[in-house]
Specification:
The complex is a heterodimer of chains A (425) and B (139). Chain A is an alpha+beta fold and 425 residues long. Chain A has 15 helices and 13 strands. Helices cover 35% and strands 18% of the residues of chain A. Chain B is an alpha+beta fold and 139 residues long. Chain B is globular. Classes of the chains: A alpha+beta (425), B alpha+beta (139). Chain A: It holds the Pfam family Thiolase_C_1.
Chain lengths: 425, 139
């Protein structure tokens, strides 16, 4: 594998909707899935200084077609986003969708076929089409969301035999981490509290986040003495896969994201492009790890490919997002990348080093727990945040030393390890 | 694939085996490693030259946690929350499966974690519509 891009590639524009619920969240309530997606696309096109007619191709991703009932998105959305008569495809790489789309766009451009590609991700994990209505929606039960989501997981054996994402992605990884580094269960629990506190702080400063309430404010609202008392509550924060609790997990959301990928010299003067310097993609079926649940070979390969293509080293990374449907899994990936010393993630969290103003900022939009998770749209939301931080436009949560290099890692269920490296142009 | 089984899905052969208390796997003639549960080619080297073999059903439970309730899959609603484990079989295969004989409580799971790796044996769980791979502590 040559693992090289023949052209310099830019992300010329990014867009993202509010993440939340199409039935309840003020910025989304009443919108159709087409309009929610169009809002994200318009923001990305405006950001790039382009219209839908300026792009050569449109790659649109949606993982859970059961709730969207919207296959063939390239044409079904084209009159909503102004891209009629373009080239296009509907694709999915589950929760890595939009960043895999960015990689596919980079390959299409670097090969010399296209100059400008629009990548879009949309997902509704909280609401679904009601009956056969063109506009009415209804909530999805928690069990139905996972049943549909798990259709991306081994359907011959693992799912029919009692596979559970929370056990596999949280509980077992947590126990492996504690065993490997000699961390007591109570210390682990306290450390995960600190991680959640950080993510919720970030969410509280992110206007598009699903949850914008700090853990401390939630504790006050619910009458707890402090945030840690809330954390240890069986009622509000039960174990979902011992020793991992509910608030160390993903929060579902409806949402959409978009980005415009171009040849670097075509990134418009009106935009603030960043370079897509490299990427890596590697998948594996269950189990995602061998005897050591903290080490994922698929991530190792994905990260190594991305770093090799981009020519950067872990020490160059100024901002990192790792896929954190499971907070402990995301921290293991950060350690694998070399952003955090092995076994030190919980200490870093306790010392505030993972905060936006710490020396190892991570997931400054709040991550999967606070920003929320709209499967096929989420990788795009992570890239949106990275670009925002690199531009110095993140407002209250701006990393003080604007990052020159940002790395975004995502897990596309189940399981596509995807890594993007962004740098300044 | 041997001619006698050419038209039988590996999935059906596997579940038929479980129904009889047998763990059926494929073994690669090229690299000598197992693919379990069975598929059409070696998961390690990609070879299509495979034999059918039966596993001992013995292994070691490395880690044990639990699932959520209601379970993600309706099939398991009647038994959720249940214990779910990460295991190494004696043949060197890493699998994850339901663990019987351990309560899905923090206290019981903490005791398992503090004890360390636990020998286990296969203990197939028979649900209404499907036999399911499961294990229990040996002895």
């Amino acid at each position: 594998m040559r693992n090289r891009l023949r052209e310099r590639i830019a992300i010329a524009g990014v867009g993202c909707s509010r993440f939340g619920d199409l039935l309840e969240t003020p910025e989304l309530k009443g919108l159709s899935i087409q309009e929610m997606t169009a809002a994200a696309v318009k923001e990305a096109l405006d950001d790039a200084g382009m219209s839908g007619q300026d792009v050569d191709a449109v790659y649109v991703g949606n993982a859970m077609v059961h709730s969207s009932q919207l296959p063939a998105t390239y044409s079904q959305l084209s009159k909503w986003i102004g891209t009629e008569l373009r080239s296009g495809v509907h694709f999915e790489a589950q929760c890595s969708t939009t960043n895999v789309g960015a990689a596919m766009a980079a390959m299409a451009i670097a090969s010399g076929v296209h100059d400008k590609v629009l990548v879009v991700g949309l997902e509704t994990t909280r609401t679904r089409v009601k009956d056969l209505s063109p506009y009415e929606r209804e909530p999805i039960s928690h069990q139905m969301t996972w049943l549909w989501t798990d259709m991306a997981v081994n359907q011959a054996y693992q799912v029919p035999q009692g596979y559970d994402i929370f056990s596999t992605y949280n509980g077992i990884v947590a126990l492996g981490y504690c065993r490997k580094y000699g961390i007591g269960i109570d210390d682990f629990d306290r450390g995960m509290f600190e991680v959640c506190r950080t993510r919720r702080l970030h969410g509280s400063m992110t206007p598009k986040a699903n949850i914008q309430e700090t853990l401390e404010d939630e504790a006050r609202r619910k009458g707890y003495a402090d945030a840690f008392e809330l954390w240890r509550s069986d009622k509000d924060n039960p174990f979902v896969a011992w020793p991992s609790r509910l608030k160390s997990l993903v929060t579902t959301a409806d949402g959409a994201s978009a980005m415009v990928v171009t040849r670097a010299e075509l990134a418009g003067a009106r935009s603030q492009p960043v370079e897509l310097k490299g990427f890596g993609i590697c998948y594996r079926d269950l189990p995602w790890y061998d005897e050591d649940p903290t080490y994922w070979e698929g991530d190792r390969r994905s990260v190594d490919q991305a770093l090799d293509m981009s020519g950067i080293k872990p020490a160059d990374i100024g901002y990192l997002h790792t896929h954190d449907c499971s907070h402990i899994s995301g921290l293991c990936t950060a350690e694998l990348i070399g952003y955090i010393e092995p076994g030190k993630s919980l200490a870093y969290a306790r010392d505030g080093r993972l905060r936006f103003d710490g020396d190892r900022p991570m997931s400054t939009h709040g991550g999967r727990h606070a920003f929320g998770h709209a499967w096929a749209a989420s990788a795009g939301s992570d890239t949106y945040e990275a670009v925002t931080q690199m531009r110095g436009a993140a407002g209250a949560r701006q990393i003080p030393k604007r990052p020159d290099i940002a790395v975004i890692h995502t897990h596309g269920y189940a399981m596509v390890g995807t890594t993007l490296v962004l740098g300044g142009l | 694939m041997p001619q006698a089984q050419a038209n039988d899905s590996a999935i059906k052969i596997y579940y038929d085996g479980l129904r009889q208390g047998v763990l059926k796997a494929r073994k690669c003639r090229s690299c000598d490693r197992h693919t379990f549960p069975p598929t059409t080619c070696c998961e390690h080297c990609g070879s299509w030259d495979l034999d059918w073999v039966e596993l001992t059903g013995r292994g070691t439970l490395l880690f044990a946690t639990h699932n959520i309730s209601p379970a993600c899959h309706p099939r398991f609603e009647p038994i959720a929350p249940y214990v779910y484990g990460h295991l190494r079989l004696d043949e060197g295969i890493t699998v994850q499966a339901i663990i019987r004989g351990i309560e899905a409580t923090p206290e019981a799971l903490r005791a398992v974690f503090e004890r360390g790796p636990v020998p286990v044996v296969a203990d197939i769980l028979v649900m209404d519509d499907l036999p399911v791979l499961a294990f229990r502590p040996a002895g």
